Amino acid sequence: MKKVTYISSILLLAGLLYACGQAESKSPIPSKGEIIPVKVQRLQKGSFYTPISASGNFTTKNETVLSFKVGGIVSKIYVQEGEEVKKGQLLASLNLTEIQTGLNQAKIGLEKARRDFERASRLYADSVATLEQKQNSETALEMAEQQFKAAEFNLEHSQIRANQSGFVLSKYVNEGQQVTSGAPVLRTNGADDNSWVFQTSVNDQNWSSISLGDSVSLMTDIGGNSVFSGKAVRKSQAADPVTGAFWIEISPDHPSGLKLASGIFGRATIFPSNKMEAWEIPYESLLDASGDQGYVFASKDGKTAEKVKVKLGKISSQSVQVIEGLSGYSFLIISGSAYLTDQSQIQIRN
Question: What is the dihedral of CA 67, 93, 190, 242, to 10 degrees?
Fold first, then answer.
């Protein structure tokens, strides 16, 4: 029994010695009103710009949806998706039975109106017909001429021809299908290198920092990670109602030999020319960040710490841009803030 008691006493003593050692190893917590040692960084506002990374797709400025002027039955589609076409090439046609019949009827009506006018003119010259009868026949002739022109126009536009050299992007109908006037049949684009654009979306903060003419680096996975330059040429003036994002249109300096297709994915790095006035602070000095808001401890005189609410800009893994909130402060506390409260007394020990 004595042996067990002796061992227990040794274990208890060892535990007490360990606990004391742990307590001595911890830094003492400053008491209320005590001056707290801190490390600081002098605040200095500077001009910054941060490259903006975004992804998007290549497209062309001259994509066109082609359709028939009149409705009818599709007789023939002469091209397939992805096929190259030349300007003026026949792409599709309607069954011409009804349209040709309409043209023939208009032609017959025109011939009759012309005969009636000639007869009325002769009778009027012989004082048999009145002036009103002659004028009525003349009006009927003019109406028949216009109806014939409209029928000819409909016949001409019962075929679809390529309005530019390029490629067929989409085919919406098949042969034998009935279509209405103006219904989409084919979608084409131009093959001119200058027609390509890259479209991407950015948030409102990035949108405001991008100016037309800003340089851009573009990269695609085609051709073994092709990289080429471009510039911002257009920007939306309203947010997308669904996503809330703004689009930016970039004109690429198209490199020779690189084959693009509408919809190809790419990545853009935009270099804004508008620089932002901000403070750059270490990431670890930021407290309680949420969205574009956060808190830091700063000091005006190097003796008193203040908890300051700040508005944040770009955030990286090592630093944060503060765009509002630090005006009038000389020092940013970067170490020792764990023991600080608002209006704590501090001593700088860098």
Answer: 30
Q: What is the mean pLDDT of each run of 10 residues along the chain (350 residues)?
A: 42 42 48 82 84 89 88 93 91 91 93 93 89 92 94 89 89 93 90 78 88 92 78 92 92 72 88 84 87 91 93 80 91 88 89
CA distances from 165 to 60, 61, 96, 341 (A): 13, 14, 26, 71
| One domain, residues 85 and 172 | yes
The residue among 271, 296, 326 that closes a domain is 271
Domain count for the chain, please give it.
3
Query: Would you say residue 21 lies in a domain?
Result: no
Residue type, 13: L
Residue 261 in tokens: 């297709």
Of 350, 332, 349, nearest to 283 by C-alpha is: 332
pLDDT at 277: 80
Q: Strand locations in 165-315, DSSP E?
A: 166-171, 178-179, 184-190, 196-202, 215-220, 226-235, 246-252, 265-271, 276-282, 287-290, 293-299, 306-315
Give the three-class secondary structure for 285. helix
Q: How far apart are CA 305 and CA 38, in angstroms?
A: 10
Tokens 């012989």 — which residue? 126
Domain that holds residue 287: 36-46+277-348
- Among 271, 304, 331, the domain-final residue is 271
91 contacts: CB under 8 Å, gap ≥ 6: 66, 77, 78, 79, 85, 160, 161, 162, 168, 186, 188
Do the beta carbons of residue 304 and residue 345 sit within 8 Å? yes
Q: Is the pTM of this model over 0.90?
A: no
The helix or strand, by DSSP H or E, that contains position 321, with its residue range, turns out to be strand 319-324
Instruction: State the Cα torsion 86-89-91-96 to the nearest 10°.
Output: 170
